[in-house]
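Hi there, hope your week has been kind to you so far. Thanks so much in advance, here it is:
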Amino acid sequence: MKLKIFFILILLIAIAVTVTILVKPEILTSSGLMVHGIAKDKKEPDDTVRTSVKFEQQLMEQLHTLEVSNQNIKRTVLKQDSSIEIRTSVPRGKPMEWIVWMIQSGLKDAAYTMDDCFYESDAKGCRIQFSCREKGNPPFMLVLARSSAYFTSTAKIAIFIEDFGFQADETTIQYLSFPEPLTVGLLPEKKLTTWTAQIADEYKKEIVLMLPMEPVPNAFAKQSNSVIMVHYTEDKIRQLLNDAIERIPNFSGVANYYGTRVLADSKVVSMLFDQITSRNSYFLYFPQQRNTSVSTIAKSEGTPYVSVDIKVDTTLSVNRIQDTLRHCAMIAQKTGHVVVSSKARGSFIQALTNEIPVLKQNGIKLVYISELAKGK
């Protein structure tokens, strides 16, 4: 009996050892495979996902910095090579080279590098290809086009054409058909002024009413009836302004035509600004040698105003005028905006037309004077 029990115990022990040898190692091995498998399955794909996702996030941040909205971004996974294509349009007002540099500078810490960048013109857009140093990460293709909007911080130039008058010639047609914003100044006493104002308005030109004002010395002896003089009463000044408005009703701003003496008289300027403000208009003035009270009174009256910064010499050649416009662009890039005044000469409109592509490429936007005056 004892022998039988002994053999039974030995048999149980043998079974236990067999289970330990055959089963437990399998469990350990299986557990080890699972741990290893999970770590392996998670490690490589997770690193891949993290790398590509991080890069895409950085790319989105750079596009947002460039004032691109999420609604303007299209993401596509290409079937042929699983690459990710991102299409968007960037604002105008900055060179494409600058935009590419901004994108690249924000991706310095990414595992992706720029392999290729192809840009021929804004019309055809720009294509930038990125690849990752780490295997298993999809390549990216960024396709940039131009939107119709401009950067909010774009440098601006407002062009003012002094004493614009309609002539049945090519120069007048060039000014009227100029596709970018232009502001034209009209003298109310000139012939065909009302008709010229209507034509200019139809061609989407902003109109400034140029009021003759008393200068130093007085040079308006023959036009004294329409010139604002410092000794005039408020009723007289209001009447002169109303007469001018009757001839040019669709005006946006008012400018001084001469007027050194008037602009130095705070009482007259205050009366003028009261009328201008009540008509939701702005004041454009040509800085004189003598001190003026324009800025002080405009601020106190709440009258939008802006001054002419640069006056173009239209006796120069077209090439020299283009040089002047490039100088204006440099100033605008430093200060934010510039108001440029010129007479309505063929040389100026030709130079301006020639220079438009250069201005746009360097981040310059042409605007109406009202945008600068009322945007302060």
